[in-house]
Amino acid sequence: MRLRGIDVLYNNGLDDNSIIRISLEQNRLILTRDNGLARRPLAASHLLICSDRVDEQVHQVLTAYQIGATPLTRCSECNETLTPIDKDEAVDLVPAYVYKTCDFFLRCGACGRIYWKGTHVDRMESTGMV
């Protein structure tokens, strides 16, 4: 979902009460495969995910909700917004081949991770993942 540019909070160490509390405080939708959590009355804003396949999960969420977002604008690790950087800034931060073959790079302001549009993005686009 982050690769689609959607603001996602993920922490598999949270208990059900904490998930519900955060959802209510931050007005977040709960995506879960946990039937027990989905049945909780305070978890009214939730979607029970049916599949264990990521592509089907993404399709289910996107079919159920009209979420406006721009793909490839969030860090897949920490969820922060990505910002473009000059190619020259990326020279020592990416593999040499990537630097030679790509002209557009993004950086996460929080964790520093660098992103570029590689062949993996083409594969994700062809399957509707982004």
Overview of the structural elements:
This protein is α+β, with helices and mostly antiparallel strands and 130 residues long. It has two domains: 2-64, no CATH class; 82-127, no CATH class. 35% of the residues lie in helices and 13% in strands. The protein contains six helices and five strands; from the N terminus they run H-E-H-E-H-E-H-H-E-E-H. The chain has helices at 16-26, 35-39, 54-64, 87-90, 96-101, 119-127, and strands at residues 30-32, 46-48, 82-85, 105-108, 114-116. The strands form two sheets. The chain has a three-stranded antiparallel β-sheet. Helix 2 links the parallel strand 1 and strand 2. The longest helix is centred in the N-terminal third of the chain and has 11 residues, at 16-26. It is elongated, with a radius of gyration of 17 Å. The chain starts with 15 loop residues before the first helix and ends with a helix.
Return the domain count: 2
- Structure classification: alpha+beta
Number of helices in the DSSP assignment: 6
CA-based shape? elongated
Task: State the share of residues found in helices, binned by percent.
Answer: 25-40%
Instruction: Tell me, rounded to a whole number, the average pLDDT.
Output: 89
Spatial separation of the terminal alpha carbons: 8 Å
Q: Biggest sheet: strands, sense, closure? A: 3 strands, antiparallel
Instruction: List the strand order in the largest sheet.
Output: 3-4-5
- What proportion strand? 5-15%
- Annotation, overall tally of beta strands: 5
Compute the CA-based radius of gyration.
17 Å
Low-confidence stretches: none
Order of helices and strands: HEHEHEHHEEH
